[in-house]
Amino acid sequence: MALSGVENLARMPELKKKLLWTFLLLAVYRLGIHVPVPGVDTASLSEFFASVENTLFGMLDMFSGGGLRTLSIFALGIMPYISASIIMQLLQVVSPDLKRIAKEEGAAGRKKITQWTRYATVLITVVQGFGIAVGLESMTSPTGAPIVLSAGWGFRLITILTLTAGTVFIMWIGEQITAKGIGNGISLIIFAGIVAGLPGAIMNSFSLIGAGELSVFVGLLILAFMAAVLVFIVFMERGQRRIPIHYAKRQMGRKMFGGQTTHLPLRINTAGVIPPIFASSLLMFPATIGSFAQGSEILQQITALFSPNSLLYNVLFVALIIFFCFFYTAIIFDPKDIAENLKNAGGFIPGIRPGGKTREYIDRVLSRITLWGSFYIAAICVLPMLLIANLNVPFYFGGTSLLIVVGVAMDFMSQVESHMISRQYEGLMNRSKGKVRK
C-alpha cells in the first residue's frame, strides 16, 4: 500500500512539488526556532520556563514550538495572527459594515479582511514584543541570574523589531504553504511546533522503562490506550449530522433547474480547538500572575488552587469548555443565515416550513450535537491530568495539542488524497477523449 502510494506520488510531479515546498518551508520555520534574540541569557530563560511549565507561559511556549523558551526570533509563533483572526471574526458579529464586506463583497471583501488581519497581527506583535521585553528585564532564573544581559531601551527596541519581523515572516510562510503547498499553512506551523516535542517524550518514556520506574506491561497498556483515544478522536472529528435538503424544480427560460436532493452537514465539533484554548488561557492567568509575585503568600495559595492537578481547576476547565463551545459555535454558524439562503435558493428541509421554522429546527439540532461535542472536547482535555495522576504517565498526552495534531493531520491527508483522486480523474477523462477521437 505504501509502495503504491510512493509510485502514485512519482507519477504526479505537481503533488511532489507541493509536498517538497511544504516540507521546505516548515524546515525553514524549525530552523528559525533555534536563532535567539540578541541580549538574552538563553540558559537562564530555559531554567525559568522549566519552573513555570503549568502556567500561561507553558501553553504559549507549546504553540510557539519551543521558541519562547529560548526567546528565538519566532518566539511569538503564529499566535498573534490567530488572535487577530479571532478578533476580526468577533468584530464581524458586532459590526454590520464588516459583516456586509465579508458576505456581500465576495473575494474582494475577504481580501480586504485578510489585509486588515495582517495589520492587526503586526500591532499585536509590537504590543506583545514590548511587554515581553519589559517583563524579561525584571525576571531572574530560579538561581537568581538575570535573564536580560543589558536592560534598557536598546534591548526593548531590538526585541520588538526582531519578534515583529519573525512573526511577519512566519505569517508569510503560512500563506505560502496554503497557496503553493498542501494543507492550511497556519495550522501546519502549529502542528510542526507541537510534534517537535514528540521524540523527546518517547525517549523519556524509554528511559523510565529502562530505569525500572515504568513497567513494560504498563507501557504497552498506555500505548494501546493512546491508540484507542486517537481512533476515538478521528471518529468524533469526522462525526456529523446530515440534515436532508430538497430543492424544488424551477423553470428559467427553456431550462429546468433544481429538483435535487442534498444534505446540510452539521459537525459534532463545530467550534474546533478554540474552546479549550480560551478556557486554558483564562484559567492559567492566576498561575501566571503568581509566578511574578513569588513573595506573596495569598497569591501563592490562589496559584495552588488553580494548578492543573486541582479539582477546582478541572471542574472550571470543563465548565468553561462547554460554555465556549456554544459561544464560538454561535459566532461562526448562524442558523438564520442558513435558513434564509435555503429559502432564497428554493431549498427546504422535508417536513419543515422554510424561514423561521427552518431556523428553529437547525438551531435545535445544532444545540443538541454541540452539547455532545462539548462533552467530547472536555473529556479529551482533562485526559492528561487523569493519566498523570492515576497511571503516572511520564508525558502530556491529550488536551488541545492532541486535538490540533489529529485535526491537522486529517486535513493534510484528505487534501493529498483529493489531489490524487482529481489527478486520476483527469487522466481517465483524457484517455476517454483519446479513444473517442480514434
TrEMBL record:
One of its GO terms (cellular component) is plasma membrane. It is a multi-pass membrane protein. The keyword rRNA processing does not apply. Its main location: membrane. The chain crosses the membrane at residues 19-37, 71-95, 116-133, 153-173, 185-202, 214-235, 313-333, 369-389, 395-413. Keywords: Cell membrane, Membrane, Protein transport, Translocation, Transmembrane, Transmembrane helix, Transport. InterPro entries: SecY (IPR026593), SecY/SEC61-alpha (IPR002208), SecY_CS (IPR030659), SecY_dom_sf (IPR023201). Belongs to the SecY/SEC61-alpha family. PANTHER family: SECY/SEC61-ALPHA FAMILY MEMBER (PTHR10906). The central subunit of the protein translocation channel SecYEG. Consists of two halves formed by TMs 1-5 and 6-10. These two domains form a lateral gate at the front which open onto the bilayer between TMs 2 and 7, and are clamped together by SecE at the back. The channel is closed by both a pore ring composed of hydrophobic SecY resides and a short helix (helix 2A) on the extracellular side of the membrane which forms a plug. The plug probably moves laterally to allow the channel to open. The ring and the pore may move independently. Component of the Sec protein translocase complex. Heterotrimer consisting of SecY, SecE and SecG subunits. The heterotrimers can form oligomers, although 1 heterotrimer is thought to be able to translocate proteins. Interacts with the ribosome. Interacts with SecDF, and other proteins may be involved. Interacts with SecA. HAMAP family: SecY. This is Protein translocase subunit SecY. The gene is secY.
